Amino acid sequence: MNKHLVLFMAGNPNAITLAVEPEVAEDLGDRLVQIVRNGHTQTIAGSQGQQYVVNFSHVVIAYFE
Fold it and tell me: Which domain of life is it from (predicted)?
């Protein structure tokens, strides 16, 4: 079953939800706090083979559900 990475961007009250494989969520889960704190740009593999590039310097809140 897919996981979802939920992102809230600065200046936008609407969440962006990206479907990812459970392995991606597991890999990023432990590092997500550091990635957001440091504002890294990260490539994230989507659940259907897509590649998302997220600039975490614009992310205010990020979590997996």
Answer: Bacteria
